[in-house]
Amino acid sequence: xxxxxxxxxxxxxxxxxxxxxxxxxxxxxxxxxxxxxxxxxxxxxxxxxxxxxxxxxxxxxxxxxxxxxxxxxxxxxxxxxxxxxxxxxxxxxxxxxxxxxxxxxxxxxxxxxxxxxxxxxxxxxxxxxxxxxxxxxxxxxxxxxxxxxxxxxxxxxxxxxxxxxxxxxxxxxxxxxxxxxxxxxxxxxxxxxxxxxxxxxxxxxxxxxxxxxxxxxxxxxxxxxxxxxxxxxxxxxxxxxxxxxxxxxxxxxxxxxxxxxxxxxxxxxxxxxxx
Length: 275
Known about the structure:
The chain crosses the membrane at residues 47-67, 79-99, 120-147, 153-177, 189-208, 245-264. Helix content is 76%, strand content 0%. The chain is mainly α. The chain has one domain. α3 packs across α7 (119-146), α4 crosses α7 (119-146) and α5 (79-99) packs antiparallel against α7. The longest helix has 28 residues, at 119-146. The radius of gyration is 21 Å and the shape is globular.
Protein backbone atom coordinates (compact mmCIF):
# COMPACT_ATOMS: atom_id res chain seq x y z
CA UNK A 1 0.00 0.00 0.00
CA UNK A 2 1.39 3.40 -0.95
CA UNK A 3 1.43 6.47 1.27
CA UNK A 4 -1.42 7.98 -0.72
CA UNK A 5 -3.51 4.81 -0.29
CA UNK A 6 -2.91 4.66 3.46
CA UNK A 7 -4.27 8.19 3.88
CA UNK A 8 -7.58 7.31 2.25
CA UNK A 9 -8.89 5.14 5.10
CA UNK A 10 -8.93 7.74 7.89
CA UNK A 11 -10.38 10.34 5.52
CA UNK A 12 -13.21 7.96 4.60
CA UNK A 13 -13.85 7.22 8.25
CA UNK A 14 -14.03 10.92 9.11
CA UNK A 15 -16.37 11.55 6.19
CA UNK A 16 -18.53 8.60 7.21
CA UNK A 17 -18.83 9.82 10.79
CA UNK A 18 -19.57 13.34 9.58
CA UNK A 19 -22.30 11.97 7.32
CA UNK A 20 -23.84 9.99 10.20
CA UNK A 21 -23.89 13.05 12.44
CA UNK A 22 -25.50 15.12 9.68
CA UNK A 23 -28.20 12.48 9.13
CA UNK A 24 -28.91 12.31 12.86
CA UNK A 25 -29.29 16.09 12.97
CA UNK A 26 -31.60 16.06 9.94
CA UNK A 27 -33.71 13.37 11.64
CA UNK A 28 -33.92 15.25 14.94
CA UNK A 29 -37.73 15.39 14.71
CA UNK A 30 -37.87 11.60 14.78
CA UNK A 31 -35.52 11.61 17.77
CA UNK A 32 -37.66 14.17 19.55
CA UNK A 33 -40.80 12.14 18.87
CA UNK A 34 -39.24 8.91 20.19
CA UNK A 35 -37.96 10.62 23.35
CA UNK A 36 -41.41 12.12 23.95
CA UNK A 37 -43.02 8.73 23.45
CA UNK A 38 -40.66 7.12 25.94
CA UNK A 39 -41.20 9.86 28.52
CA UNK A 40 -44.96 10.31 28.30
CA UNK A 41 -46.24 7.09 26.75
CA UNK A 42 -45.70 4.88 29.80
CA UNK A 43 -48.07 6.84 32.07
CA UNK A 44 -50.37 8.23 29.39
CA UNK A 45 -53.64 6.99 30.93
CA UNK A 46 -52.70 7.56 34.58
CA UNK A 47 -53.86 10.43 36.80
CA UNK A 48 -50.42 11.73 37.71
CA UNK A 49 -49.02 11.08 34.25
CA UNK A 50 -45.51 12.50 33.93
CA UNK A 51 -45.53 13.16 37.70
CA UNK A 52 -44.85 9.47 38.31
CA UNK A 53 -41.26 10.10 37.30
CA UNK A 54 -40.98 12.24 40.47
CA UNK A 55 -43.09 10.03 42.74
CA UNK A 56 -41.10 6.84 42.23
CA UNK A 57 -37.73 8.27 43.40
CA UNK A 58 -39.38 9.69 46.51
CA UNK A 59 -41.07 6.36 47.33
CA UNK A 60 -37.79 4.50 46.82
CA UNK A 61 -35.93 6.91 49.09
CA UNK A 62 -38.57 6.58 51.84
CA UNK A 63 -38.23 2.78 51.66
CA UNK A 64 -34.44 3.01 51.89
CA UNK A 65 -34.69 5.37 54.84
CA UNK A 66 -37.10 3.16 56.80
CA UNK A 67 -35.33 -0.14 56.05
CA UNK A 68 -31.77 1.01 56.66
CA UNK A 69 -32.34 3.30 59.64
CA UNK A 70 -35.26 1.71 61.51
CA UNK A 71 -35.38 -1.97 60.48
CA UNK A 72 -31.79 -2.90 59.63
CA UNK A 73 -29.20 -0.52 60.96
CA UNK A 74 -25.91 -0.20 59.09
CA UNK A 75 -22.45 0.64 60.47
CA UNK A 76 -22.27 3.36 57.79
CA UNK A 77 -23.68 6.56 59.24
CA UNK A 78 -26.57 8.14 57.32
CA UNK A 79 -26.70 4.98 55.28
CA UNK A 80 -29.80 6.06 53.38
CA UNK A 81 -27.85 9.01 51.96
CA UNK A 82 -25.03 6.68 50.93
CA UNK A 83 -27.47 4.42 49.09
CA UNK A 84 -29.42 7.29 47.53
CA UNK A 85 -26.20 8.82 46.17
CA UNK A 86 -25.43 5.73 44.10
CA UNK A 87 -28.59 3.70 43.54
CA UNK A 88 -30.16 5.95 40.91
CA UNK A 89 -27.07 6.22 38.67
CA UNK A 90 -26.60 2.46 39.07
CA UNK A 91 -30.21 1.78 38.04
CA UNK A 92 -29.66 4.01 35.01
CA UNK A 93 -26.57 2.09 33.90
CA UNK A 94 -27.83 -1.43 34.60
CA UNK A 95 -31.32 -0.87 33.16
CA UNK A 96 -29.72 0.43 29.97
CA UNK A 97 -27.45 -2.59 29.93
CA UNK A 98 -30.46 -4.90 29.76
CA UNK A 99 -33.15 -2.74 28.17
CA UNK A 100 -30.80 -0.92 25.82
CA UNK A 101 -29.69 -4.17 24.23
CA UNK A 102 -33.19 -4.45 22.75
CA UNK A 103 -33.29 -0.89 21.41
CA UNK A 104 -33.08 -2.04 17.79
CA UNK A 105 -34.95 -5.35 18.06
CA UNK A 106 -37.77 -3.67 19.97
CA UNK A 107 -38.30 -1.22 17.11
CA UNK A 108 -38.01 -3.72 14.28
CA UNK A 109 -41.15 -2.37 12.61
CA UNK A 110 -39.61 1.06 12.18
CA UNK A 111 -36.30 -0.36 10.99
CA UNK A 112 -37.94 -2.47 8.29
CA UNK A 113 -40.47 0.09 7.06
CA UNK A 114 -38.56 3.37 6.88
CA UNK A 115 -35.08 4.74 6.51
CA UNK A 116 -33.54 6.83 9.27
CA UNK A 117 -30.23 6.75 11.14
CA UNK A 118 -30.43 3.63 13.30
CA UNK A 119 -28.37 5.39 15.97
CA UNK A 120 -31.48 7.44 16.75
CA UNK A 121 -33.10 4.45 18.43
CA UNK A 122 -30.18 4.18 20.83
CA UNK A 123 -30.05 7.94 21.44
CA UNK A 124 -33.79 8.08 22.16
CA UNK A 125 -33.46 5.26 24.67
CA UNK A 126 -30.52 6.88 26.47
CA UNK A 127 -31.86 10.45 26.42
CA UNK A 128 -35.30 9.56 27.80
CA UNK A 129 -33.84 7.42 30.59
CA UNK A 130 -31.23 10.07 31.31
CA UNK A 131 -33.87 12.78 31.69
CA UNK A 132 -35.83 10.63 34.12
CA UNK A 133 -32.71 9.77 36.10
CA UNK A 134 -31.57 13.41 36.33
CA UNK A 135 -35.01 14.53 37.50
CA UNK A 136 -35.11 11.78 40.11
CA UNK A 137 -31.59 12.60 41.26
CA UNK A 138 -32.48 16.28 41.58
CA UNK A 139 -35.42 15.34 43.79
CA UNK A 140 -33.13 13.16 45.91
CA UNK A 141 -30.57 15.95 46.37
CA UNK A 142 -33.33 18.35 47.42
CA UNK A 143 -34.66 15.87 49.98
CA UNK A 144 -31.15 15.21 51.33
CA UNK A 145 -30.56 18.96 51.70
CA UNK A 146 -33.95 19.51 53.38
CA UNK A 147 -33.22 16.81 55.98
CA UNK A 148 -30.19 18.82 57.06
CA UNK A 149 -27.50 16.53 55.72
CA UNK A 150 -24.34 18.65 55.20
CA UNK A 151 -23.89 18.76 51.42
CA UNK A 152 -20.71 20.40 50.16
CA UNK A 153 -21.63 22.33 47.03
CA UNK A 154 -18.08 22.65 45.70
CA UNK A 155 -17.71 18.93 44.80
CA UNK A 156 -21.29 18.98 43.48
CA UNK A 157 -20.15 21.36 40.74
CA UNK A 158 -18.59 18.29 39.10
CA UNK A 159 -21.92 16.47 39.16
CA UNK A 160 -23.15 17.57 35.67
CA UNK A 161 -19.84 16.54 34.09
CA UNK A 162 -19.89 13.08 35.72
CA UNK A 163 -23.51 12.59 34.69
CA UNK A 164 -22.72 13.43 31.06
CA UNK A 165 -19.67 11.15 31.05
CA UNK A 166 -21.81 8.35 32.45
CA UNK A 167 -24.41 8.97 29.72
CA UNK A 168 -21.71 8.73 27.02
CA UNK A 169 -20.35 5.54 28.57
CA UNK A 170 -23.86 4.09 28.58
CA UNK A 171 -24.50 5.16 24.98
CA UNK A 172 -21.35 3.37 23.86
CA UNK A 173 -22.23 -0.01 25.30
CA UNK A 174 -25.85 0.25 24.13
CA UNK A 175 -24.58 0.83 20.58
CA UNK A 176 -22.42 -2.27 20.96
CA UNK A 177 -24.93 -4.64 22.56
CA UNK A 178 -28.03 -3.48 20.65
CA UNK A 179 -26.30 -4.17 17.33
CA UNK A 180 -25.04 -7.57 18.50
CA UNK A 181 -28.53 -8.49 19.74
CA UNK A 182 -29.91 -8.08 16.22
CA UNK A 183 -27.64 -10.93 15.09
CA UNK A 184 -27.81 -13.01 18.27
CA UNK A 185 -30.84 -12.62 20.57
CA UNK A 186 -28.97 -14.51 23.29
CA UNK A 187 -26.93 -11.36 23.99
CA UNK A 188 -29.89 -9.69 25.67
CA UNK A 189 -30.59 -12.72 27.85
CA UNK A 190 -26.94 -13.04 28.83
CA UNK A 191 -26.86 -9.37 29.85
CA UNK A 192 -29.94 -9.87 32.04
CA UNK A 193 -28.01 -12.51 33.97
CA UNK A 194 -24.84 -10.42 34.08
CA UNK A 195 -26.78 -7.48 35.52
CA UNK A 196 -27.34 -9.49 38.70
CA UNK A 197 -23.58 -9.83 39.09
CA UNK A 198 -23.17 -6.07 38.76
CA UNK A 199 -25.81 -5.59 41.46
CA UNK A 200 -23.72 -7.46 44.02
CA UNK A 201 -20.29 -6.34 42.76
CA UNK A 202 -21.00 -2.60 42.70
CA UNK A 203 -20.37 -0.77 46.02
CA UNK A 204 -23.83 0.65 46.64
CA UNK A 205 -24.49 -1.07 49.97
CA UNK A 206 -20.93 -1.30 51.20
CA UNK A 207 -17.71 0.73 51.17
CA UNK A 208 -15.49 -0.22 48.22
CA UNK A 209 -12.32 0.06 50.32
CA UNK A 210 -13.73 -2.32 52.94
CA UNK A 211 -13.33 -5.27 50.56
CA UNK A 212 -9.83 -6.66 50.08
CA UNK A 213 -8.13 -9.54 48.31
CA UNK A 214 -9.33 -11.00 45.02
CA UNK A 215 -12.89 -9.78 45.55
CA UNK A 216 -11.64 -6.25 46.10
CA UNK A 217 -9.77 -6.37 42.80
CA UNK A 218 -12.87 -7.66 41.03
CA UNK A 219 -14.90 -4.75 42.38
CA UNK A 220 -12.45 -2.27 40.84
CA UNK A 221 -12.57 -4.16 37.53
CA UNK A 222 -16.27 -3.34 37.44
CA UNK A 223 -16.65 -0.16 35.32
CA UNK A 224 -19.82 0.83 37.19
CA UNK A 225 -17.77 1.13 40.40
CA UNK A 226 -15.97 4.28 39.25
CA UNK A 227 -19.14 6.25 38.58
CA UNK A 228 -20.84 5.09 41.78
CA UNK A 229 -17.73 5.99 43.80
CA UNK A 230 -17.67 9.41 42.12
CA UNK A 231 -21.26 10.06 43.23
CA UNK A 232 -20.50 8.79 46.73
CA UNK A 233 -17.55 11.18 46.97
CA UNK A 234 -19.48 14.21 45.75
CA UNK A 235 -22.77 13.65 47.59
CA UNK A 236 -22.07 11.52 50.66
CA UNK A 237 -18.47 12.39 51.59
CA UNK A 238 -18.55 15.96 50.24
CA UNK A 239 -15.21 15.47 48.48
CA UNK A 240 -13.85 15.74 44.97
CA UNK A 241 -13.43 12.17 43.65
CA UNK A 242 -9.95 10.64 43.65
CA UNK A 243 -7.85 11.19 40.55
CA UNK A 244 -7.98 7.51 39.52
CA UNK A 245 -11.76 7.61 39.72
CA UNK A 246 -11.98 10.79 37.66
CA UNK A 247 -9.57 9.43 35.04
CA UNK A 248 -11.57 6.24 34.66
CA UNK A 249 -14.81 8.23 34.40
CA UNK A 250 -13.22 9.97 31.38
CA UNK A 251 -11.47 6.95 29.83
CA UNK A 252 -14.47 4.59 30.02
CA UNK A 253 -16.80 6.64 27.76
CA UNK A 254 -14.00 7.16 25.24
CA UNK A 255 -13.37 3.41 24.95
CA UNK A 256 -17.07 2.59 25.09
CA UNK A 257 -18.01 5.07 22.34
CA UNK A 258 -15.14 4.07 20.05
CA UNK A 259 -15.94 0.37 20.34
CA UNK A 260 -19.71 0.83 20.22
CA UNK A 261 -19.64 3.09 17.16
CA UNK A 262 -17.21 0.83 15.30
CA UNK A 263 -19.34 -2.29 15.80
CA UNK A 264 -22.68 -0.51 15.28
CA UNK A 265 -21.61 1.14 12.02
CA UNK A 266 -20.30 -2.15 10.71
CA UNK A 267 -23.43 -4.17 11.55
CA UNK A 268 -26.25 -1.69 10.98
CA UNK A 269 -26.36 -2.31 7.22
CA UNK A 270 -27.79 -5.77 7.88
CA UNK A 271 -30.37 -4.81 10.53
CA UNK A 272 -33.42 -4.85 8.24
CA UNK A 273 -32.56 -8.28 6.84
CA UNK A 274 -31.94 -9.79 10.28
CA UNK A 275 -35.07 -8.45 11.96
